Every structure is written in C-alpha cells, then in structure tokens.
C-alpha cells in the first residue's frame, strides 16, 4: 500500500490545521531531575559557546556568556562552569543508580554538543574542561543509539508522538512544531508557523542580527580589550553582549521546557517496554563512569575491533527498540500491518499430529486480507498479545485478496496451546531480546581474538579450495 | 550566430530594470539541484540571483545571507591556506603524499592583476583584469597539457568559464592541483565547514561537492577549447575538498569522486530551455516585451517547489506560499507528492478521503481513494483506542 499511516496523519493534520497523534503511548522517559541545556555558538566557530542557558525541568535557567568565545581563556571559564554542573549532576545520578538526561532543542544543538565533546575531551591545558568534554561525550555517543534516553532533542521526542501538516524536515524547527501542536486561536496557523520559523531555535543567531547587533558589540569589546581599557569598561561591554544574546537563548530554553512539559503531561500511558530501555540506559551509564574511574582513554576514532562491537550494539539497539515499540504501541503495530511486517488474521483450522511417542506437531492456519505482506517461508512470528507463542511459517497461499498462512508452533505449545478457531491473532516478527547483546559480544570477542586478515597487516591468506556442490541450482533452492 | 554584444543586449532586455550578477559556481550548481524549476533557470540564464529576485522583484526580505562572523571565519581560513605562496595548502598535499616536497610551483592568479591605470575607469580596470586572469589561466592549462615542466602544481583562483543555457559565465574554483607526474589538474574546493569525518554535515558536503563539480565541468570545457576532445579521461569527475579541522586553523584533504554531481550538472545544462531563444519565446507567450523584473511575469513562470529548496534558494519561501495557495501535495513532503500525485492537490485528496464532490475521475484516483479510506479507518481505530 502506498499511503502509510504517517502520511494519513500528516494529511489530517493539514486538513484540521492541528497536529495529530502518531503513538498510542508515551515513548520517551521524562526524568524529573533532567537538565535542559540551550547553547548559542558564534557563527563559523564550531567549537564555541557564546551563551549557555542551563536549568532543571520547570526552573528558570542559569545563564552564562562570554563576550568573544574566540578568546580561549574566557571560553574555558564558561566550559568550566558548565562542566561543574554536569559533574555534579552525573555524580547524583550515579549515586542514585540511574542515568543522566539532558534535553536540547533540536538535532542541530545535539550535533553542536557532539563537536564540542570531540574537541574538549582531548584538552591538555585544562583538566576541568577535559572532564566536561568526557561527560559530554557520554551523552553524544549515546545520541545515535536507538531508544537511548540520555540526550533528548525536543523536536525528535515530539515527532515520536505527534505529526504535523508540513514536511518532515520543517519539523526540526522547535517553535514551528510547537505552533502545530498548540495552534493559536486567533490567527491563521500557517501564518503563525511562518512567523515562528523566523525565531532562531538551533545554536546560531540570525545572520542579520549578527550583522546589525552582535558584530558591533563584539568589535567594540575587542577594541577596548586591545586598547587595555579598564576592567569596569570591559565588564560593561561584556554585559551589553550578554544582554544581546539573552533574548535569543531564552526563547529556545523556554520552547524546550514547553516541549518537555507537553510530553510529561501527555494523556497516554508510558510504553510498557520503557522501563527496559531505561534499565539499559542506567547500565550503560554505570559502565561508562566505571571506565572513566579506571582511566580508560576515549578515542576520537574507533579501532576496527571497537567499531565492530559498537556497530553490533547499535544494531541490537535498533532491533530491540523497534520490537519494543511494535509490541507496546498500537499505532506502531497498525503501521506494521500496513507495511506488511505485522500479520493480523483469523484462525481457520488447527491440529495436532503425533510425530513420535510424546512428540507432537502443533499447527494452525490463519487467513488475512492484508494487501501487503512481508512474510516468507520459515519466518518466525510471535503473538503480540502473548509473545510466548512463537511459530514458524510453513506455507503461504494467496487467493484473490485473501492469504492463508500455515504456521507450526515452536514455543508455547503447553503454556498457551493451539489458538481457538475464529480467534483473531496479531503476529509480530520479533520481541525485544535484552540478553542478545551480551551473547553477541561474547561471540565477537571469540571471533576477533585474532584480527581478521581484512584488517591485519600482511598478505591475503590462501584458502583451500572447497568442492563445489554437484548440483549448484539445487543447493541454492535448498536455501529458500 | 549572435555577437557577445547582441547576446548581452538580449539578456539585458529580459532582465528589465535589474542589473546583471554573475551566478558563479554556487548559482550554476543551484540550477542542477532542481533542474525542473523553470523559474530558477530563467533567472540564472539572465544573471539574476534568487536573493535579488526576492528583494528587488517581490520586495520581500531575502533570507539568504551569511553571518559576518561566519564570513570572517571562512575568509580567514582561506587566506591562511593561500598565504605565503599557499604554504599551508602545499604542506597539506605533501603530507598526504599527493605532491613531492620539490613540487612547489604555485601561481596565484589574482596576484597578476594590474592596478588601476590613468584614464581607465574602475569598471574597465576590473574587466581588463578579468580578461588577464582568463588568459593566464588558459596559458597555464596549456603548459600542463603540453607536458611542460614549468606548469605549476597549484593554481590559486584560476578563471574558467561555463556555458550555462547558452550563455557563458565565469567561475573561479578555489584552486587547481596537479603533481608533475599527473596528466592534468583537478579542482580544489576550500570550505570552512568543520570536517568531522563520518559525522560531517551531509548538506555541507553536498553543497561543497556540487560546487567542485562545477569546477570539473569548467575544466572539461577549457580542455575542449584547447583542442582536446578526450576531456573525460583527462579531467575525471574527481575533486579535492579542503575542509576545516574543528577548533584548529588547519585544513583536511578529502578527495571526492563526483560522478553523480557532474552527471547531474551535465544533464541540467543540457535540458530545456536550452538557450536564450526558448526563454524569450516563453516570456513572449506570457506577454510581449515581458521582463523578469516584473513580479507578475516572474510569478507566471512555473516553479518546482521542493522542501529542500530552502537549503540553496532564496525564493523558497515565496514559492512555498504559492504551493500553499494551490494546496500542492509537496507541502507534506516529496513522498506525499508522489503518493498523492493521482489527486493532484491536497484539496482533491481530502475530497477523495471524505467522499465529497463527484466520484473518482480516473482509475488512479479510484485506487488512491480506496487506499486513503482503508488507512483512515485503521488510523481512526488506533486513535480511538480500538
């Protein structure tokens, strides 16, 4: 089917000029002790923070700025200030056995923190700045992992729950997103969205604002600094820059707080698997902090071996997060039905056949009218209502709009048994497996004990020729 | 065959009250990003930038511009690389093993400009210097093609030309580079974007690669004008990106294969309206003596609004307003635009969904209607908690 659930929701949002729900549950954790961080960088200077606003949920922000972030000593003072806040917060989380949660406005802000983390954690001149870089690295390295709860961007979190009547790329602007979520009563929505778009919500100030307001102030400050003016004059000029940046950073901070409040107050139950995701987060955090205590180095680039481990962890996180959401969220499951990964069908017949003494085969057939089905022979499926029932697909027959699927039960013969005829079952491809990563890591450790020739120095090894199968075509068919 | 003066006169007539602006590599790659946008092509052919069209034709505020801080950082990075006979750029190539230590012949083309001389106006002087740069670049390229050992290894700011839609435009790649053992040069694009390896912003890379591809196309044209026909072999679709290492003033060197970018540029440069005649005919169809400085005329030239237009075109917001007024499905994204194509507009799609008005007009509409209603039912079931 071409039209997907998300497109339908987007179409309805456009029609009703109001965002539409796209989840049946709350899919992200909102920690009460989370920190909200909004930073402004100087344009063109990618490892700077011109002003930072930091605070707890629902609280007013603490603000800190530097007159010119290109002046290293001033910039380090700001990093030290932020580093202390992070360090205290991380210590509290560690003592409580939980994990830290940092909220930023959008992926642009997360990306900026990532650049800073890459740069600051190798600082040799200032231990506090290096420590800040290391702690920031934990957040930014978690960010690309599916289902992580540490570094949250307000736009992504909102987009998991609501869909707007505009292009997805436009949803990365937090204020336009909030305008769709909470449309003004007295104004045309699209006009309000166009106005919202003009407000900076990333990490940069508006170029015109830079030219007209900020640049003259920074030039004036630097001229006074170079001329050796009094500290009082420099402070006064620094205050002017602070005053110019404050009205830019505060709306970003407030919008982020507003987004979090919307998520915290959402009238949807938390995803049943959210606790597992948080548990994984706490484990990862504990592991990271322990590695810091032991003095392990955080590399800028992964070695081939470390990359293999991390890639596996990412793949595992994607599989588990998808499975968790599909299992717990009705909207995700409906989307799965439309794209054919989830099968809903009615049980047509069932039977038990004896294979040997005390060995039986339990089978049933189900019929579905789904237009799109992405299942093949030998696929394993689990019952969404009780995943203990695991089946393997043994036959698929399509007749007109109706598809009949024959399944053999692999697990749950006794605990659940054969489903009653007429029962409607919803079968999903997988459920979360939280121990898989440990097993995978064990396998990788054994496999990579000796560096493979692809990544080792030396010649390409000569492999002994293997005998080709007598009938190659039959061998290929046997794989189907 | 039109003389250059005739050509300029025709372009000036189409521009109306607006002055000519060189589109540069950025303007040329912009056309290639959205070749179906006739409005953008028309403006580029007559040398009007989208930002000028927004400001001077529509009287709106153009949102295309860089922060002075970013401009200063970019200029500082470039000046630093090219200072002292491009010492840092040479060092970068030597440390990457692309040039030997003794391969240090550098020509900075703008250094050969002549200062303003008595009697000549400033404009005349600029034109003369541009001609000087063109000739010098041509001579240097010729040296290399003839295998002359005096050919420089690095040419900073060469002056090349690209024929865009039948009109010649000058472009100035940041540099050209070639080892003595190599047959010809490859373009170098210098950008102060932070190089974060796999985490580098894709939009930044895309934009830098496309501008570098303009350099490849211009070099190929130059080689052809020097009498060699096998330009694809001599100038492969490869360029070097020099990006900034975050937090340092040093650059990083990234050779990039640009086959896709060069092909898309070639396609865009060869598509309709291929030349000035077609544009003149298009405007004449709207009204005789039409000029692009008239907002009504410009509005009547079809555009092709896409959500990513805002990445590179100052007209994006104006075109989006048109899309809003017509209920263009692209407002919901490119995918929506494809999937709802049978209906043609969001209004019609909603009519099909709600079964309003007359029944489906075509078979494609009927299929879409059935799909929409099925998905709507599923969506409502979930929203209502069933």
SSE layout and pairing:
The complex is a heterodimer of chains A (480) and B (386).
Chain A: H1 5-16, E1 20-21, E2 35-40, E3 51-56, E4 62-65, H2 72-96, E5 102-104, H3 107-120, H4 127-142, E6 151-153, H5 154-161, E7 162-163, H6 174-181, H7 189-197, H8 207-226, H9 231-264, H10 274-293, H11 304-328, H12 330-339, E8 343-356, E9 359-368, E10 380-383, E11 390-399, E12 402-411, E13 424-428, H13 436-447, H14 472-479
Parallel strand pairs in A: 2-5, 5-6
Antiparallel strand pairs in A: 1-7, 2-3, 3-4, 8-9, 8-13, 9-12, 10-11, 10-13, 11-12
Helix pairs in contact in A: 2-4, 3-4, 5-9, 6-7, 8-9, 11-12, 11-13
Chain B: H1 4-15, H2 24-33, H3 38-45, H4 50-57, H5 68-95, E1 106-108, H6 122-145, E2 154-156, E3 160-164, E4 167-171, E5 175-177, E6 186-194, H7 202-225, H8 231-234, E7 238-244, E8 251-257, H9 259-270, H10 276-286, H11 295-300, H12 316-326, H13 334-339, H14 346-354, H15 363-383
Parallel strand pairs in B: 1-2, 6-7
Antiparallel strand pairs in B: 2-5, 3-4, 5-6, 7-8
Helix pairs in contact in B: 2-7, 2-9, 7-9, 14-15
**Ends distance of chain A:** 26 Å
Helix percent band of chain A: 40-55%
Largest interface: A-B, 51 and 48 residues
Count of helical regions of chain A:
14
Give the overall pLDDT of chain A as a whole number: 93
* Overall geometric form of chain B: globular
Structural class estimated from helices and strands of chain B? alpha/beta
**How large, in whole angstroms, is the Cα Rg of chain A?**
28 Å
- What proportion strand of chain B? 5-15%
Radius of gyration of chain B: 25 Å
